[in-house]
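Design a sequence for this backbone.
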């Protein structure tokens, strides 16, 4: 049994709506968890509780909630990236230093250049041919057909 093109498109838009609904629910759940975490953390500190055991759905399965300190490290904003990388390398940790380019930003630049050249939807080779020579040799371009939804 085949569906009409319209029925398939309706199913596609419905699936997209489902994803947006789930993403919104996830965003709300994370915000709720953050609010509850603040309250619970403060209450545990106030009561001197090192942990709280929670029985899930009345079963014997339990969870244990306890405070921890997460550690985050990043470059000090007063030190430029190149100097920072040298300092980390000189300290013996050069294996964690990587020179990189953000691929999302690179793709955005290439899309912009392709649009300016009028070859945005002309395929890999046409786009590559319109890039500045230094970039054309250094960037692998791939395109993939996909669908886009415009809502009215």
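Sequence:
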């Amino acid at each position: 049994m085949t569906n009409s093109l319209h029925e398939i498109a309706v199913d596609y838009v419905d699936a997209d709506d489902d994803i947006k609904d789930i993403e919104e629910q996830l965003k709300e759940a994370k915000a709720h968890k953050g609010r509850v975490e603040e309250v619970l953390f403060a209450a545990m500190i106030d009561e001197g509780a090192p942990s709280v055991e929670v029985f899930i759905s009345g079963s014997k399965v339990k969870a244990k909630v306890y405070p921890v300190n997460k550690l985050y490290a990043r470059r000090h904003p007063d030190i430029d990236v190149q100097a920072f990388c040298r300092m980390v390398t000189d300290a013996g940790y050069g294996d964690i230093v990587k020179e990189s380019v953000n691929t999302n930003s690179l793709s955005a630049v290439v899309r912009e250049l392709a649009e300016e050249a009028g070859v945005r939807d002309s395929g890999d080779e046409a786009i590559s041919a319109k890039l500045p020579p230094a970039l054309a040799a250094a960037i692998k371009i791939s395109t993939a057909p996909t669908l886009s939804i415009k809502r009215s």
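The beta strands are 52-55, 62-65.
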